[in-house]
Design brief:
Length: 312
């Protein structure tokens, strides 16, 4: 039986040609030792192994599970937790030490990659908060009902393509800024708009749309006012701007003023229904959804369902 004070740590090495996984872990290890933290560490072999390893930690009774990784690993972790019964889920605290290709949910709370010692000290203080999750509900090509939870956002349309490009280029270059710039350059080769029909509160939108972001948190800058603890989702619907407005939009996005763009239409709601989104890719927490929705799909919020370890 695992001691309740012992942490289960999943180390997800960061990709990129400039990455040094062993050196990154050595710094985390030193911080844990200095803080006198008892832990067991497992290293993921691949993206697909994270789900299996998190389930193993849950089944072995760890009450504190810390992801040394990014948004994708956190997404896998919360989806594993949501498969547990409520009593088991309520007994587990989830924490993060950012080390992924994309760490936006960690950044939302103030965790940063270069502050490992501070991050570990914050986690040790065990300041818990129940957080909301978004949930994407859809049918796959076989007509089976599926769902996937998310911490950050669901993207439908162009930005789902950009986020996928951003992840791929960051695997190659390692640099957050460089991969972002290259992704925007590559977007000129992408389809720019999609016919959609969306129901948000009392509004029905049926027209060509460039991208939609449904955010439980800041949504990679597209839903900057969203917070994962108010029981609501923020939605940004972006119509296709002129080319000059597109570059203005990129500038505002980088400056954190995305909602100021004239083509961005913000909403706040508990549920969004997509009656159709023709040929649009769907991304969830920064990566493409495996097995794209077939037909209508919806996004809703589930309030206060996961214990998250916060900074002091």
């Amino acid at each position: 039986m695992i001691n309740d004070d012992k942490w289960g740590i999943l180390y997800c090495p960061k990709g990129g040609i400039l990455s040094n996984p062993s050196r990154k872990w050595e710094r985390v290890e030193r911080a844990l030792t200095d803080q006198h933290i008892s832990y067991d560490k497992i290293q993921s072999e691949s993206v697909g192994s994270v789900d299996r390893l998190i389930k193993m930690m849950i089944n072995n009774g760890y009450k504190t599970i810390v992801i040394v990784g990014g948004d994708s690993a956190l997404n896998d972790a919360v989806n594993c937790l949501m498969q547990c019964d409520k009593e088991t889920r309520n007994s587990i605290a989830l924490g993060v030490i950012p080390n992924g290709l994309m760490n936006d949910f960690a950044h939302f709370w103030g965790f940063n990659e270069g502050e490992v010692e501070k991050n570990v000290a914050w986690l040790k203080s065990r300041r818990l908060r129940k957080i909301d999750l978004g949930c994407l509900r859809y049918k796959n090509k076989k007509g089976e009902k599926c769902h996937r939870y998310f911490l950050n956002c669901v993207n439908v349309g162009l930005v789902a393509s950009i986020m996928n490009l951003r992840r791929q280029t960051r695997h190659i270059f390692g640099s957050r800024t460089l991969s972002f710039i290259i992704s925007f350059i590559l977007l000129v080769f992408q389809r720019m708009e999609y016919m959609m029909k969306i129901n948000i509160n009392e509004d029905t939108i049926k027209r060509k749309i460039m991208t939609v972001c449904v955010g439980n948190a800041s949504g990679y800058g597209q839903t900057p006012n969203a917070v994962p603890y108010n029981g609501l989702l923020d939605v940004s619907v972006v119509y296709h701007p002129e080319m000059t407005q597109l570059f203005e939009g990129i500038y505002l996005f980088l400056k954190g003023k995305f909602l100021n763009h004239r083509s961005v239409h913000p909403f706040r709601t508990r549920k969004v229904e997509f009656e159709f989104a023709e040929h649009a890719l769907v991304g969830i927490d920064g990566r493409l959804l495996s097995g794209a929705p077939n037909g209508p799909f919806s996004v809703n919020v589930e309030q206060e369902v996961v214990n998250f370890l916060m900074p002091e």
